TrEMBL record:
This is 3-keto-disaccharide hydrolase domain-containing protein. It comes from the Bacteria. PROSITE patterns: PROKAR_LIPOPROTEIN (PS51257).
């Protein structure tokens, strides 16, 4: 190319020579420029088509459980029998009917139509027996006005009592539980251990109506006229009544008893009055 340029340039003007050189430069640049990529290489990548998203079921259906048959609810029997004549209605007005006490351990004294037991010493039990007639089959109830009582402190009733050491003893604890025992020469036989009661109002001051039904060897306990439990024991068949209160700890206990009522049982033999219990 240089040879051609040198031989032919002798008879040409400088302008033509520059034009020829410019053309050569253009051709050379075109030869050195990068070649375009094939069409398929410059096309954009194919965009993948969107995939369908699974629908979220927030509250999936569940199988309906098979309905169980409704159980028939049988009411608790009240265990109350037909009552006969009223045998005793004691308003605690006759002081000679109940034993009293005044000591460092506490006091048993009459108030306004009530008999109050105030326990002053720790872990002491005060008892008062009613003098008079002896009964075998009966329903008795009285009102206990609890003035000062807490936790395992207790008060209660003696039934079919020959003495304070020979009787059936019903405890009402101040946390709302009941217990029935048999005392025989001072020894305790458990007939019904501590049982929670929905009717016994715990603590103090509260009022509870306590009832005992005795028929043969059957003893049934009631609170506010609602049956609590039943036991059987053949040892004591008759006796009088009593009340008691006990301190389980260092604090005092005060309970007042009033409105004692005793009824015969319909169809049951009314016991003879003024019988003297046989000492054991």
């Amino acid at each position: 190319m240089l040879k051609i340029f040198s031989t032919s340039a002798q008879g040409r003007s400088p302008a033509k020579i520059r034009a020829i050189l410019g053309l050569i430069v253009v051709i050379w640049l075109a030869a050195c420029a990068p070649q375009p990529l094939p069409l398929e290489e410059v096309l954009p990548s194919a965009t993948p088509s969107p995939q369908p998203t699974a629908t979220i079921v927030w509250f999936p259906p569940t199988d309906t459980p098979t309905q169980l048959p409704t159980r028939a609810i049988t009411p608790t029997p009240d265990r109350m029998v037909a009552l006969g004549d009223m045998l005793v209605q004691d308003g605690f007005a006759q002081q000679k009917s109940w034993t009293t006490l005044s000591s460092a351990d506490g006091n048993i004294a009459f108030g306004n139509q009530e008999l109050s037991l105030a326990v002053a010493s720790p872990r002491i039990t005060l008892k008062s027996l009613r003098a008079g007639d002896i009964y075998s089959d009966f329903y008795m109830e009285l009102t206990a006005q609890v003035n000062l009582c807490r936790g395992e402190d207790a008060y209660g009733v003696l039934a079919r009592a020959a003495s304070e050491y020979n009787a059936y003893r019903l405890w009402v604890r101040c946390d709302g539980q009941l217990r029935l025992e048999r005392l025989r020469n001072g020894e305790v036989a458990l007939l019904k251990d501590w049982t929670p009661s929905g009717q016994v109002r715990p603590g103090a001051p509260v009022t509870n109506r306590i009832g005992i039904l005795a028929s043969g060897d059957v003893l049934r306990v009631f609170v506010d006229g609602v049956f609590q439990f039943e036991t059987r024991d053949p040892v004591w068949q008759s006796g009088t009544f009593g009340v008691l209160a006990r301190s389980s700890g260092e604090t005092s206990v005060s309970v007042s008893f009033r409105d004692l009522s005793v009824y015969s049982l319909e169809g049951a033999a009314i016991p003879a009055a003024a019988l003297t219990p046989t000492p054991n």
